[in-house]
Amino acid sequence: MVNAPAQIQSDQALSPAQTLWDMAAEDMAAVDALITERMQSPVGLIPNLGQHLVGAGGKRLRPLLTVATARLCGYEGTDHHKLAAAVEFIHSATLLHDDVVDESALRRGKKPANLIWGNSASILVGDFLFARAFNLMVETNNMDALGILSHASSVIAEGEVQQLAALRNLSMSEDDYMQVIKAKTAALFAAATEVSPVLAGKPASEREALREYGLKLGLAFQLVDDALDYGGFESALGKSVGDDFREGKMTLPVIRAVKAADKTEAEFWHRVIVDHEQSDVDFETAVSYIRKAGALASTMDLAKEFSRDAADALGVFPKSPWRDTLQNLAAFVVARIS
Q1: ∠27-134-53 over CA atoms, to 5°?
Q2: Among the four 83, 84, 109, 177, which has the fewest Cβ within 10 Å?
Q3: Which residues are bridge partners to 239 per DSSP?
Q4: Degrees to nearest 5, angle at CA 270 with 268 and 274
Q5: Would the pTM count as exceeding 0.85?
Q6: For residue 187, with 0-12 CB atoms within 10 Å meaning exposed, 13-18 middle and 19 or more buried, which class applies?
């Protein structure tokens, strides 16, 4: 029986996630075995670097969603294991690439792979994981599932480029921000849940419902992450608190604080974001301005709204332990900052 990641086990607030892990334990053991098997290569750097990230644990939330929604749909085969492993490989590949771009000092509570093996190795191993993901997709012989996950991969890349283009841009709008997080985060959540009804041969209404569930869950998840960067702890975030600030990322808390800024605050935001001139005390100042504007609270309010939408989307399915736990999980995603 596979154990849930430490981040889930150690936090009582994550009990719906633990419940889902317990329910899907046999499936997740099979997924983990596939991940370990397909990460192997005669080129020793590949499994070593890959294991550093993939083996670090993390929440494994995306593949867990794939196997859980497959069971919700009554799927009895094993191809959902391959698609769940593919989802985790896609996610891990994007993390390896992100760490090179973001220059973060922490990933899943550990030093990022690029700070150990270098940027080139991280990018190339990320490419290897993408390739492994597509190998697994093809093996299912399901063109619809392949189309869903391959499209999500391209959308994720577009979102990352869009975010990079908006770096240190104080005029970024909320609409543009929502498009970025929809692409770079929510797209993979949506794909991870949409492939399950496709495998199970379910009608379009159930496919759309599960896509909506994953999309809204992903939006809520990213909004909470962005709030945690200014109001959380590294143990909850899995990366260094303040990374977004130091990188000059325009996330919703900052966008709303800038919109409400007086002259002094506006000058501060221009210096630390546009000019990228930051001192040791500037992060705490940024947090105080964000809290003054109510931007953390309003960001969390929006996350809760998406969380409720995600739970409501599952209403097309009959009541069952799988449906109930997935609905509880949606509410639970926003509990990380409570």
Answers
A1: 65
A2: 109
A3: 107
A4: 140
A5: yes
A6: buried
